[in-house]
Structure formats: C-alpha cells, structure tokens
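At your convenience, could you comment on the folded chain following this short note?
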Amino acid sequence: MTKHLQNDGFWAAFRENDTELRIRHAKVGCVLALILMPAGSTLDAVVYPELVWPIFQARLWTNLFIAVVLCLLLSRFAARYVRLIGSVWVFAPAVAISWLIYVTEGPVSPYYAGLNLVIIIGCLLMPYTLWEASTVSLLVLAMYLGACLMHSGLGPLWSAELYSNVYFIVLTSVIAVASCHYYHRRRVEDLLLRHQLDAHTSMGAR
C-alpha cells in the first residue's frame, strides 16, 4: 500500500477526482444556499418583524454573491481555483448570519443555530481534509464571537447564552471535522484499491 501511496500517478488521479468532486458538490451547495437564504425570511418575519426589510436586503445581497460564485464554478476557471471558489459559498451565508446576529440580539439571538447549519452543510457536502474542515469551523466560530463582541460595543461579553451557543458550535465543529477526516481517509483508501486493481489487471493482461 505504501508503494502505491508514493506513486505520482495515484496522487494525480486522486487530485483529478477531488477537483471534480469539489466542483460538483460546491454547485449543489450554491443552489441550496440560493434557496435557503431567502427562505429564512419567514423566520425573520416571526422573530424580528421590525427588521424584515433590512434583513431581506442582506439575504438578497448574499444570494447575488453566491450566484456569482455559481457562475465561476460553471466556468473554466473552476478547476484551477477550486479550493478557493469551492469554499467561498460556505462563508457567504456565515458572514450574513453573523451580521444578523450583530444587528439583532448578539449572544441572545437564535440565529446562532444558522452557523451550526453552515458548518454541517459545508463539511457534509465538501470533501474537506482535516485541516480544511478545522479552518472552516474556526473561522465560523470567530465570526460568531466577532458579531457578539461588536454587538456589545466591545464591552463585557460573557453570558450564559454565549457559553451555551459557543458550546454547541464547538460540538458541531468537532463532529463535522471528525466526519471530514474519516471520509477523506475512506476516499483515499477506495481510490487506492481501484488503483491497485487496475495495476494488477494491467500486469495480468501482459
């Protein structure tokens, strides 16, 4: 197995498969975001009826940005910059939700749950490595803490609500990162087995 893992041909095949998977799944993620972001207006109307219009505008701007990302994923530039373009769609909703937390109730805002969804959907769809998933999770957590800090006017931040929300975001992140890590390992092992089978088949055909 080690011999095959050191084979340049194997890693070239893995990178090609990984690129195709990232582009395909990022497209799905963009479509989901384009549907789910405006759908959240129903929640806005119930929880913050006085802020429906400004929040709806933020959702539309987010959708416009994601639509641009989707167009890039459909272009010839997608394969070259797939790691960047394929992750931008994850952060767009995270930034929007963090802004919603900032303009509403900070740590008390129920919108923190949306950040959990961002982590789950992003790590579920994208074939992230351990480090990529960890980076995404940490950045989302940083966005949440930044939103809460700005909402408090850079004043005292600690509260039971903040601890509770951070606790669940961290737990969600740990689960998502672990899932990404073992999914990545399984992909490498599956492709390795196919690579070994192809090598044996080629030798047997000679």
In short: DSSP finds eight helices and no strands in the chain. Residues 160-205 form the longest helix (46 residues). The two ends are 22 Å apart (CA to CA).
